[in-house]
Structure to design on (409 residues):
């Protein structure tokens, strides 16, 4: 019964992830969650700053005791108070700070999109490179099978005295070299699986059949990292304006309500005492001279803005070049596929001819071994070129400013 149960579960345990599922897992990893939490932190800080600009209410109490009572100073007193404060105008600092936080949040969101695209591109590269190495491994296995068959055949001829040791040794060397290449392919496959496990935070079994959509209808847009730089520029400009606000007047309102409980030893003082008082204040302050401190602080912040603006122009131009290079690389990959198809056709034809001649003793085993290697190399090269084309598509989508994961099928 237990064997039947395990046999029933085995197909489900071996179920693999296609590229869509793999990317979806990667876009919910710990790095993405950490970045999202940082964005939430900025939003909370912004809400805190907004709350500070709303009317503030402060309450408190005071107890005092004196040894020399006067009409204005009772022997003991207990006072409670409530104060409402509101800044009406702060030289424009409030709205500059608001703009800075809003742009900071937008920049953080664009950086999150950039991170998602970077991770998606990594997963796509690992996925298609995995199948390139699988194709390489399978081609090498087939080559080894044929080499071993020829090795066994030549050993029999060696025993019969119809061939020489060097002919057998050449085949054996080819087998060993092919085995080394096979192990290298297996190592590359395992490395990719470990890298994917690191990205998605779980062991993965890949499922073939995924591809990238055609890219002919994609229009050029700004990448998310370029948009993030734009918002960073606006943040720095708002910070500069917030610094400059110190040179303007500040207007605030205060309303203070005091409640008194005064204890006089002298009853004459008691009769003249008040038990409550409300004070309304309009406060205006203006820093008309600070030895140029505000101006210098503004210039410092504005220099940061200008520096980032220069970097933005550089990165924007670089992004345009990256897109053009991605398109050229894609076109070269298409030519490479056409070329490798012809090379495979030619190598199969050449191998068929040389194999017949080799069986009839018309060519030596060097020519045969070269033809055999070329045939299987051409098979793996074609698969690699086809998988590489999918990666090149993803690169164009990335540099076009689109969400790469939306184009996986």
């Amino acid at each position: 019964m237990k064997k039947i149960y395990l046999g029933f579960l085995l197909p489900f345990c071996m179920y693999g992830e296609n590229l869509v599922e793999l990317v979806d897992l990667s876009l919910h990893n710990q790095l993405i969650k950490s970045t999202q939490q940082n964005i939430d932190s900025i939003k909370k800080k912004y809400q805190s700053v907004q709350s500070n600009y709303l009317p503030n209410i402060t309450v408190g109490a005071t107890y005092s005791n004196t040894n020399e009572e006067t009409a204005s100073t009772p022997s003991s007193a207990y006072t409670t108070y409530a104060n409402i404060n509101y800044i009406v105008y702060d030289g424009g600092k409030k709205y500059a700070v608001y703009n800075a936080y809003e742009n900071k949040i937008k920049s953080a969101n664009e950086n999150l999109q950039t991170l998602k695209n970077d991770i998606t591109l990594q997963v796509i590269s690992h996925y298609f490179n995995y199948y390139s190495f699988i194709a390489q491994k399978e081609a090498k296995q087939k080559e080894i099978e044929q080499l071993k068959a020829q090795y066994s055949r030549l050993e029999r001829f060696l025993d019969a005295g119809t061939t020489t040791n060097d002919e057998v040794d050449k085949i054996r060397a080819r087998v060993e070299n092919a085995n080394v290449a096979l192990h290298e392919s297996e190592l590359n496959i395992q490395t990719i699986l470990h890298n994917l496990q690191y990205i998605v935070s779980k062991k993965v079994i890949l499922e073939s059949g995924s591809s990238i959509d055609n890219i002919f209808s994609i229009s050029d847009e700004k990448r998310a990292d370029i948009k993030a730089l734009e918002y960073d520029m606006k943040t720095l400009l708002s910070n500069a304006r917030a610094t400059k606000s110190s040179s303007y007047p500040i207007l605030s309102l205060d309303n203070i309500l005091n409640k008194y409980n005064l204890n006089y030893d002298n009853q004459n003082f008691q009769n003249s005492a008040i038990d409550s008082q409300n004070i309304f204040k309009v406060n205006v302050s203006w820093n008309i001279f600070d030895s140029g401190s505000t101006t210098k602080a503004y210039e410092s912040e504005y220099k940061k803005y200008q520096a980032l603006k220069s970097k933005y122009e550089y990165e924007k131009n670089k992004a345009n070049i990256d897109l053009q290079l991605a398109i050229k690389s894609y076109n070269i990959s298409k030519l490479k596929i056409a070329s490798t198809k012809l090379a495979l056709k030619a190598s199969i034809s050449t191998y068929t001819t040389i194999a017949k001649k080799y069986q009839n003793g018309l060519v030596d085993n060097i020519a045969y071994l070269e033809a055999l290697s070329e045939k299987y190399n051409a098979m793996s090269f074609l698969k690699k070129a086809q998988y590489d084309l999918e990666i090149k598509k993803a690169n164009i989508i990335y540099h076009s400013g689109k969400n790469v994961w939306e184009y996986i099928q």
Residues 1-14 have pLDDT under 50 and may be disordered.
